[in-house]
C-alpha cells in the first residue's frame, strides 16, 4: 500500500499512463495525490480528466489555476486563451459530469503532518487554517451562486490576505494564494508578474517557501515548473513536484512514505 504524489499533468496523458505503469500503481491498494493543473496546454486534457475521475477514491486531488480556468470558461462566462487545449473537454458528451467532479475538489488536502496545495501556503497559515480556507472556497464552488463566484473570480486584487477580508475579495485572494502564488514579500503580499526561476524575483520579494514557519509541516506543491523540482534555501520541509512535463521536462511522482522520486520523460516539444 503506497501513496504517490504526482506533479502537474497539464493534459500529458501518455506520460501519466507511463508513470502509473512504472510505479505498478494499483488503485485497489495504492493512493494518488495530484497537485492540480490536471488539464490544459498538453494534448490529452480530456483523457487526463477521465482517467483521474475513473480512479475514484484512489485519488486525492487539489485544484490548480488551470483547473479553475476551465471552470470559469465553462461555467463563469470566461474566454478560451490562444494556447488552451480544452476544446475536447468542453465538447465531450460527459462534459457536465466531468465539470461537476472537478468543481467538487478542494484546494488543500491534509493528512497527518503533510499538507498538499497547488501553489503553496502562506508562512503564517497553519495546516488547519489552510484546510478551513479551502473549505470556504469549496463551499462557494458548491453553492447555488457558484456561477456568479466563477464569473468574478479572476483578478489580482486584493494581493495580500488578512482575515478581515470579506465576500468576493476574500475568496479571490484565497484562490490566488492556493493556486497562483510564487513570490511574496515580508508582509505576504503576492507578486503575479514573475513566473520564471528564482532569479526573476522582484526586489523585496522571495519564494514563499524561503520564509520560516512556526510548525514542522511537510508541504507538497506543484505549479512552478521553472524550479525543476528543487526548492533552494527552503526554510521548511517542502517538496516541489512540477518538473515541467508539458514543457518537455518530465512527469514526477514521489513516494510519500520514502521520499523516493520516479520520473518519466516528456513526449512534448522542449520549451
From TrEMBL:
Among the GO molecular function terms of this UniProt record, one is: bis(5'-nucleosyl)-tetraphosphatase (symmetrical) activity
Question: What is this enzyme's EC?
Answer: 3.6.1.41
Gene3D superfamilies, alphabetized: 3.60.21.10
Q: Where are the transmembrane segments?
A: none
Task: Using the record's annotation, list all stretches that form the Calcineurin-like phosphoesterase domain.
Answer: 1-144
User: Which parts form a coiled-coil structure per UniProt?
Assistant: none
UniProt cross-references to Pfam families, sorted A to Z: Metallophos
**Database matches in InterPro entries:** ApaH (IPR004617), Calcineurin-like_PHP (IPR004843), Metallo-depent_PP-like (IPR029052)
Its keywords, alphabetically, are: Hydrolase
Q: Write down the superkingdom of origin.
A: Bacteria
According to UniProt, the reaction catalysed is: P(1),P(4)-bis(5'-adenosyl) tetraphosphate + H2O = 2 ADP + 2 H(+)
Q: Which family does it belong to?
A: Belongs to the Ap4A hydrolase family.
Q: Which PANTHER family match?
A: CYTOCHROME C5, PTHR40942
Question: What task does this protein carry out?
Answer: Hydrolyzes diadenosine 5',5'''-P1,P4-tetraphosphate to yield ADP.
Q: What is the name attached to this protein's record?
A: bis(5'-nucleosyl)-tetraphosphatase (symmetrical)
Q: Which organism is it from?
A: Vreelandella alkaliphila
Amino acid at each position: 500500500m503506497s501513496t504517490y504524489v504526482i506533479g502537474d499533468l497539464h493534459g500529458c496523458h501518455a506520460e501519466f499512463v507511463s508513470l502509473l505503469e512504472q510505479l505498478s500503481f494499483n488503485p485497489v491498494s495504492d493512493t494518488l495525490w495530484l497537485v492540480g493543473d490536471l488539464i490544459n496546454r498538453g494534448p490529452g486534457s480530456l483523457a487526463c480528466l477521465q482517467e483521474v475521475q475513473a480512479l475514484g477514491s484512489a485519488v486525492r486531488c487539489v485544484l490548480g489555476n488551470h483547473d479553475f480556468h476551465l471552470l470559469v470558461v465553462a461555467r463563469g462566462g470566461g474566454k478560451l486563451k490562444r494556447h488552451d487545449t480544452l476544446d475536447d473537454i468542453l465538447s465531450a458528451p460527459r462534459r457536465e459530469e466531468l465539470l461537476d467532479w472537478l468543481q467538487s475538489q478542494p484546494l488543500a488536502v491534509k493528512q497527518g503532518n503533510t499538507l498538499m496545495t497547488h501553489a503553496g501556503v502562506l508562512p503564517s497559515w497553519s495546516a488547519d487554517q489552510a484546510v478551513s480556507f479551502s473549505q470556504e472556497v469549496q463551499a462557494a464552488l458548491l453553492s447555488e451562486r457558484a456561477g456568479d463566484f466563477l464569473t468574478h473570480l479572476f483578478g489580482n486584487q486584493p494581493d495580500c490576505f488578512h482575515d478581515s477580508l470579506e465576500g468576493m475579495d476574500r475568496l479571490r485572494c484565497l484562490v490566488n494564494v492556493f493556486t497562483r502564488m510564487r513570490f511574496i514579500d515580508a508582509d505576504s503580499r503576492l507578486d503575479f508578474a514573475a513566473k520564471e526561476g528564482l532569479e526573476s524575483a522582484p526586489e523585496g520579494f522571495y519564494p514563499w517557501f524561503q520564509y520560516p514557519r512556526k510548525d514542522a509541516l511537510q508541504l507538497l506543491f506543484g505549479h512552478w515548473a521553472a524550479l525543476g523540482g528543487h526548492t533552494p534555501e527552503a526554510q521548511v520541509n517542502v517538496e516541489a513536484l512540477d518538473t515541467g512535463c508539458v514543457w518537455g521536462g518530465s512527469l514526477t511522482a514521489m513516494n510519500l512514505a520514502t521520499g523516493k522520486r520516479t520520473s518519466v520523460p516528456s513526449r512534448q516539444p522542449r520549451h
